[in-house]
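Lab notebook, bench 4. Still working through the backlog of constructs that have no structural model yet. Next entry is a single chain of 640 residues. Request: give me the structure tokens for it.
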Amino acid sequence: MLIQEVILENFMSYEYARVPFKPGVNVICGPNGAGKSSLLLAISVALGQSYTERSRKLSDLIRWGKDQARVTLILDNSKKGGKRPVPKFNKDQIFLTRVLRRDGKYWFELENRAATKQDVERLLAKLGVDPDNMLIIMHQNMVEEFTVLSPQEKLRMVEAAVGLEPYRENVLQAQKKLTRILSQEESISKLLESAEQTLNYWREQYDRFQEKKQLLTKRRFLERELAWAEVNRRESLVKGLEAHREKELALIQQIEEEAKAAKEELQNQQNQLEKLREEWKRVFEERLVLEREKAGSQATIAFCEQLLMEAATIENEIQNNKNQLKLIKTESLKELIESFRQKLSKLDEGISENQTKTKILEEAIEKVGTQVLDMRVKLALLQYRMENAKENIEKIERELKDAETQLKMAEKKAEETGSRIAVIKSVGEILEEIRVTDGHLAALSAVSEDVERMYESYSKLYLELKEKAQLVAENREKALEEVKTRMQAWRTVIQSLLDRVNLEYQKILAQSQAVGEVKLANENDIEAAGLEILVGFKGGKPVPLNAYTQSGGERTTATMSFLLALQQHVRSPFRAVDEYDVHMDPKNREIIAQTLISTVKNANAQYVVITPSQVTFTQDEVNIITVQNVEGKSIIKEVA
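Model written out:
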């Protein structure tokens, strides 16, 4: 039992009333307008139900002329099996009150203390009561409303009533999780695609950056190679200058040696010339002597010849004058002339020999003089060459000193580029290669160092997204399996429930000579899945229960048959139905009433039935409450 007593104060047609309830079936009966439905409405409002059949505002439920209404439910919290339904309250009764005010303020009181709707909902959840589920509390016309519900709404209502909502929630949560994962997978897939496109761009830029780095490395190497090539060139220049200097020094040494030899030769030639000149002078003097002797001899011969001529003249005169004496001896003169002539001949020979010697000497002197002159020219040339060589050496020394300075500078500059390397290319070739490399670098000038950071960043992001995508794919498979597992669990419990309900439904319908079936439709799609209730009267084939196919009595009979077939599985200890039998014929009304009593008895539940007449219920099986309206006030006239 859930409700032990209901206390109404200024609620609709009730001014004040206390209505006790018992376990099992509680039948509220009375004429129309007596306040039967108001009593169920009061219970619903106290339980926090938002449904109000006769009003759009709770304040309209306050008795006319009053400012406040109060509905109090005394709930049973006695121990069952050694435990209280609500352990929080260590007492047998719990007072739950709903206060309504004309100014529109409403509140709950729990054990005379203000409480929120959430507090009430938590309390009712512990008791298994859902006042908004029409399978638990069916107000007026809800029997008809149930028939027009969609199969999906019926199924959800059944799940809530029997406590199988967690199975659906599990499936929906798994599906929501799967949807979230699929959405996440789609988002990650898009991000991955975008990241891949971006990464491909940055990879291309990174490749260009690597190419640029390689070109920069190559250029640095070329600069290093160029620097050491310059060192090699400078070293070659220094070596060339040193070799030139050595050559010039060797030339000077050679010139000095040639000059020394030439000087010695010149000295010898001068000495020889001096000797030749001395000899020529001596020969010349000899010639002078010979020429003097020749001249003297010629003069003597001429004189002697003149004497002979004069002597001949004289001899002729003597002969003519026979008187003179022969004064001159001609023979001696002739002899003298002859001797001088012989001497003259010898002198001519001597002179001739002297002339020959003189000519030879003159030729020798001329030759030696020429040689001396040539040697002096040679010495002058050697001296000129010596001076040129010395000037060249001085120039080479200066150039060598400058080259060595330039070499040291080049070596220092080259060492800044790195250790020495072997250079096999010429400076021109290196410069040409640098020019080509600079051209390639110019084409890559827009590639910055940030490319590497961006590429690494996007590579890391891509890998993270790829790992995340793989993880999400794994989660999707797990979620799919989880949905499948939970869907199977849901389908199993629902099918098991409906199988049992179907058997009971068919038994109840059979009493009314009807056939029917309760089955699960679209069982593979929880959103589309629904409860199909089929019924056939008077030998007709079972057709879906709806507002158009069956008559009013058939609809209420089928609905109540289903509701009663479900009772053994409903969690709530409290259930209620308002005027379910309005359209039923007497036979079906009696069948449903008896079935209700037996079902509720077996279900160990508290059931409130509102009906205009209690004829179909025997008083020893139910708790009958009679309601009457006297002068506008609903009163509990009789309780049996």
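Notes after review: The CA atoms of residues 163 and 571 lie 6 Å apart. The chain has ten helices and 15 strands. Flag for follow-up if needed.
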